[in-house]
Design goal:
two-stranded antiparallel ribbon, alpha/beta, about 45% helix
Length: about 290
Amino acid sequence: MADRAWAGTTFGTGWMHRWLIAVLRWMDIRLLYAFASVFVVPVCLVLNASRVTAYRYFRHRHGFGRLKSAWKTYTNHCLFGQVVIDRFAMYAGKKFNIEVEGFEHFQRLSQAEDAFLQLSSHVGNYELAGYTLLSDDKQFNALVYFGEKSTVMENRDKLFVDNHIHMIPVTQDMSHVFEMNRVLQNGEILSMPADRFFGSEKSISLPFLGAEARFPLGPFSVATARGINVITVHVMKSSLRGYKVYVTPLDYDKQAPRREQERQLAAAFVNELERILKMYPAQWYNYYEFWQS
């Protein structure tokens, strides 16, 4: 798994994050976008191996030509920089124009008695879903990486506290598993990423954008073990100050054998992720060799 390793933490130190939040309280966000595109992104492209994996993603998974793949690699890093800036802009009190497609699916499940699972992936800006998909009926619980910077976690706490959102850090002692079981028993909402490995390396291989790729089995196993409903949510940047949220139910045969349920659910997730990436190819932010080939 060494080639699939991910630090799981936002770049920069605590004082850098606090400085950025302070600046964003008065600065036009477009100025930071421009600064990142001209000065930060070119340096990152030179120093980081992410340029190689991003280029291969555009060249082999989307079939773009060499020049287009190179340009898309640059724009991909620019968009990722904007997503990070937008996250800190939210901490600074900035607002974005957010359109939601399929909110009725989230609303229907949040008003029912049973728990449900909300799956995410590392495309777009999923954190904004925490400020958009709000439920007055259920506690929302998000599985998050334990090693994230304290400034990021503190600001998430401040913004999430009024939104019925509770964060469950992934820990080495696996105590998060007991917390996940508790929230599902209580009929609450559990949010999990379904495109990166946390702890367990159990996986399921499926065709994804033309080649086999491994996805963590855990999220699909959690859902099928209890036969709960599942939705996937993608929050995609649609303009300088706008995002579009896609809420999609994932269907699977709850009467089928357990392994078949897992495969059906995983396939439904992968199909939806593929649909989103065909619309927003430049917003893929898994910077490692994701595909087995």
